[in-house]
Every structure is written in C-alpha cells, then in structure tokens.
Amino acid sequence: MIGYGGCITQRGLEMRIVIVGKYYPPIYGGIETVVKGLAEGLVERGHEVHCLVSGDKKFVKENINGVNVYKLPTYGKVFSQPLTTGYRTLLQQLKPEIINFHVPNPLALAFCAQKMAPVEIVTCHGPIDKALPLKWAHDYFLDFFLKRANKVILSSQRLISILKMEKFYSKIKVIPFGLRPCVQGHLGDERFEKHFLFLGRLVKYKGVSSLIKASMKLPVPVVVAGEGPERRALEIKAKDNPFIQFTGSVSEVQKWELLRQSYALVFPSISVSETFGLSILEAFSVGVPVVSSNIPTGVTEINQHMKTGLCVTPGDVEELRKALWNLYVNRSLRKKLGQQAQQNFLRFDYGRMVLSYESLFQEELKKVSPSPSWRGMRPRGY
C-alpha cells in the first residue's frame, strides 16, 4: 500500500472510531479543520469513522467524503457554547472501539461523563476563554476526563505548562496538527499581491485591534476576513481608514484567493489562547510569509523570525507597523521568506498527523481486552 509522502506502509487493523467535535465544515474554525482532515485521513486508511458534532434543532446524518457525520440536536447556546443533546444515546448505538474527544467543548464533556469505549483519547486544542462563565465547569469535566483518558494529545510541547497538565505527563503525546494542501493547486502558480490579510474569528485575543492601529499610518490595503462578536467595535475603530476592508465570512475558495493575493498574513494574537495557528500553515502552503506575535505557544514554533516571516511583541502597535512596512517595501524579503515558509510547511505534513493518530489508536487498542459487547478488530482486506 502506498502511504502518505509516497512511502510504503503496512496495513493495520480496521477500527471503529468516533470523533466528538464542536462543529463540522462548512462551519470552519481551527478545531473543525483538524477534525475534518483527521476523519477523512482515517477513512482513507480504511477505518470506519463517525463524527458527532452540534447541529440545528433536528438530527441530521450525512456521509461526507466517507465520514459519517452526525449533527446532533442543538437547542441554543449557553455562554456561546452549543447546548447539544444525544451524545450518549448515539455512542451506545455505535459501540466505538475508540472515542477521540476534541476540546474545549465543555457541554459535550458534561454529557459524556460515562465511559463509552474501551479507548478514550482527548485532543486538547487549547485553553478555554478565561472570561467564559462556563470555564469552571469545563475545567472540572476536563480534569475528570483526563484522569480517565487512555492518552492526551497536544499539538505542541509548550501546551503542557499553558494548560497546567504536568500531572498528566505520562499520558501526553505531542502530535503537531497537519494541513492537506488542496484548493490552492487550482489557482495557478502566480501570485498578485494586493493587501495584507487577517484571517480568523473576530474576538479580542486575536489582536485585530492592534492591526487596525498599526495600519492607520500605512497607505497599504488591509483585508480583515472573518466574523465574530468584536466585528462592530473593530469597524468603528477603522472607520477613518479607507484602506481597511472587512469581508465577513469567506468561502474556502475565497480564502485561498485572498491568501494568494497577500503581501503577508498578519497573525497579531495577544494571548496564549492562540495555541497553534492553522491559518499560518495555510499561508505557508502557498508561499505567503507571516507576521505573527511572539507568544510562547506553538505559534512561534511554526513561524520563525526572519526565516518564514517576522515576529513582533504582542500588542506592540509600533513594532507591528514597522514589520508590515518592512515587508511592503521589500519585495525580495517577501519572496525569500515566502519560499522558506513553503518549505517549512512540509514539517507539518497532513499524512504524518493522520499516521501518528492511527498508530496511537492502534497501540492503545492493543493494550485493552475488549469485552464481547464491543465489536472486535478485524484484519483490513487488501
């Protein structure tokens, strides 16, 4: 069998896997991008994959690229968190061998307090917003889950201290997120630079306010693509700057077009709530350098100063302004950093992520002895 990266890989054992996430594309965010890529990759490896996510008021089951996606009934939100029911009933029906929970997702954890599979693995994407009233509940259920979990997956070694997970050190496995290059291949090789680009949710910790202030004295177009609770306040701050454009949510195709037209992606986050930065990898994949904040998370492991982009002090408006101007007037620097960024993208190989998850799942499954009530493993056919 030909595996990722063109390597010959040995066939393993087919597993019945359930991934519990918050939403599923076309609703996009960092967790959703990872869940979709992982689920589809595991299906390509021959596994039976089910995804349980929040939907609308009616239950919906879809098969999307081989993944069985269950959009469970959701009855509004509690402090921005979806109030979704039906996890336990569906898990009892599916009888998974492995459940992979992607958090933060406090209410899903609360509804899945009972152990539902021989192997339970938790992927922690980052800390929950400190200002969220449900934080105490999330922390309580997460601690309960981590004690019970077979393994805990983090995208960066630095998350251990950020999430205060030292006591679970023996359970932790670091698997960097990977991104599959796809849409950009349809758009040709030429890039026509028009603007700087911010891409993401409009929330305070993303630091878009710093970008708006930094761009005030720059005669350079800036596109802010995304939605969120801070949009109105940010538009008011930018009302006197004709060079700033707010697009709202964009489609996948529009996203890649905006990236390819960028001098650089601007990633001005000001908090350790920003733990990885998948949009940085998206920029790298099409040879776009990144201006990011030097926050002590996986962000600085991805974007390296003067190698793949520029790093600035979080919240330092003047430093950010100088970095943007430096890239704007220096085409040769943009080109050099963009080329090196595209090379660095290969470090975060999508296939490597999928194979690492698959290997961990199989290792943990071999350690347990499934009772007769669980569907046994069976050799995958050639």
Describe what you observe in this structure.
This protein has 382 residues and is of the alpha/beta class. The protein has two domains: 4-178 and 349-367, Glycogen Phosphorylase B (Rossmann fold, 3-Layer(aba) Sandwich); 183-347, 3-Layer(aba) Sandwich (Rossmann fold). It has 13 helices and 18 strands. The strands form four sheets. An eight-stranded mixed beta sheet has the order 4-5-3-2-8-9-10-11, sandwiched between helices. A six-stranded parallel beta sheet has the order 14-13-12-15-16-17, sandwiched between helices. Helix 4 (135-148) links the parallel strand 9 and strand 10 (151-154). Helix 9 (278-285) crosses helix 12. The protein is globular and about 65 Å long. Mean pLDDT is 87; it is low at 1-11, 183-188 and 371-382.
Briefly summarize what is shown.
The chain has 382 residues and is α/β, with parallel strands linked by helices.
Secondary structure elements and pairings:
Layout: E1 13-14, E2 16-20, H1 30-44, E3 48-54, E4 60-64, E5 67-72, E6 74-78, E7 81-84, H2 87-94, E8 98-103, H3 106-111, E9 119-124, H4 135-148, E10 151-154, H5 159-162, E11 172-174, E12 195-199, H6 208-214, E13 222-225, H7 231-237, E14 244-248, H8 252-260, E15 262-267, H9 278-285, E16 290-293, H10 298-302, E17 309-312, H11 317-329, H12 331-345, H13 350-367, E18 378-379
Parallel strand pairs: 2-3, 2-8, 3-5, 8-9, 9-10, 10-11, 12-13, 12-15, 13-14, 15-16, 16-17
Antiparallel strand pairs: 1-18, 4-5, 6-7
Helix pairs in contact: 1-13, 6-11, 9-12
